[in-house]
Amino acid sequence: MIATNDKALARIDKIDRKILEQLQKNGSLTNQQLAEKVGLSASPCLRRVRTLEEAGIIVRTVTILDHKKLGLALTAIILIGMDRHTPERFAAFEEQVAAFPEVQECYLITGQSADYMLKVVVPDMDHYHQFLLNRITRIQGVSGVHSSFVLRRVIDSTALPLGYLS
Amino acid sequence: MIATNDKALARIDKIDRKILEQLQKNGSLTNQQLAEKVGLSASPCLRRVRTLEEAGIIVRTVTILDHKKLGLALTAIILIGMDRHTPERFAAFEEQVAAFPEVQECYLITGQSADYMLKVVVPDMDHYHQFLLNRITRIQGVSGVHSSFVLRRVIDSTALPLGYLS
DNA sequence: TCATATTGGGCAATTATATTGCATTAAATA
DNA sequence: TATTTAATGCAATATAATTGCCCAATATGA
């Protein structure tokens, strides 16, 4: 069964785009504030937001926390290679990785030297070491692991570029 | 001038942790819904949320959009090496990269083969090609570029692991 | 153990905000 | 230009956030 409306490109006019831009920056704007910013009155603004939600263009809103203040000072980028490129290997890997709360992102990627790219958040290097040894390297099929550590976050955003819509 | 309270670890009790867990999953919960989920009445719940905001633990709330429905089907992971590791080179690079809306993440990282890791979102491969040629490789000091493309998003979250707070 | 202080929670009134129906206006179509 | 269609704004209503005040629980110190 193939999903039918996943790729449906919606027609987004200038006002919709403004709404999305605002909400990407600040999802806790009140509808009234949002309406003012996009040059609409409250009710049509709210209706547009609801429509964007129902269309699945607005997926959800999330609260962003400060990792340092929560004692999570270390972010690691891990590139992982698999020994065999079979669906079973991949499925098992993904299932296990999805159960680790330290993993913020996990992408299957193209490239010769790696199959997966992970972004992992932990308190410090000790915990990272434990995580790598007790979690990642224990997964069947993991053959190569390369770790990099984030020294500075130049950009850390969830916003999509909306300039291509026009 | 060194920031003083950036690292201040807050004491987060069980209820605060529940609040943060809920809001990380769903930032558009009403205060009443949140209060019920964490076992509090509305007013102390709201007071706790405000306190967490003032402490900077809650940074902001953002709306997540569906990239496919917005015609942004290609996500690339780019590893970039710089010719010289001088503060001027890095500053200039970061300033220019920060101006590209396609760049969702840009981290200065450890590692022998790369200095920066970027996550970039564009409509398709043509646009990616243009972006690489006209934007990235034109930045002074960029000496090596390696691109990977996201085939599948296994995990794509903004949630931090709160299990270490114990 | 008991008295006291301090912190946090709950209730209820108030204020602000979201939501809905309906008339109106603007835009699109022929 | 007449007609249809879609979207907007206003106003009334329903929900939710916010605040002040009192009470309960926990911590503190004799």
Q: Topology of this structure?
A:
The structure is a homodimer of 166-residue chains.
Chain A: H1 14-25, H2 31-38, H3 42-54, E1 58-65, E2 74-82, H4 87-98, E3 103-109, E4 116-122, H5 125-136, E5 142-156
Antiparallel strand pairs in A: 2-4, 2-5, 3-4
The structure holds a DNA duplex (30 and 30 nucleotides).
Domain HTH asnC-type (chains A, B): 12-73
Pfam family, one (chains A, B): HTH_24
GO molecular function, one term (chains A, B): sequence-specific DNA binding
Characteristic key phrases:
homodimer; 166 residues; alpha+beta; Arc Repressor Mutant, subunit A; Alpha-Beta Plaits; 2 domains; 5 helices; 5 strands; 28% strand; elongated; disordered N terminus; DNA-binding; Tscrpt_reg_HTH_AsnC-type_CS (chains A, B); DNA-binding (chains A, B)
Give a structural overview.
The structure is a homodimer of 166-residue chains. Chain A has 5 helices and 5 strands. In chain A, strands 3-4-2-5 form a 4-stranded antiparallel sheet. In chain A, helix 1 packs across helix 2 and helix 2 crosses helix 3. The first copy, chain A, is elongated and about 55 Å long. Helices cover 34% and strands 28% of the residues of chain A. Chain A folds into 2 domains: 41 residues, Winged helix-like DNA-binding domain superfamily/Winged helix DNA-binding domain (Arc Repressor Mutant, subunit A, Orthogonal Bundle), CATH 1.10.10; 76 residues, Lrp/AsnC effector binding domain/regulation of amino acid metabolism (RAM) domain (Alpha-Beta Plaits), CATH 3.30.70.920. With 166 residues, chain A is α+β, with helices and mostly antiparallel strands. The interface between A and B is large, with 74 and 74 residues. Strand 3 of chain A pairs antiparallel with strand 5 of chain B, so a sheet runs across the interface. The structure holds a DNA duplex (30 and 30 nucleotides).
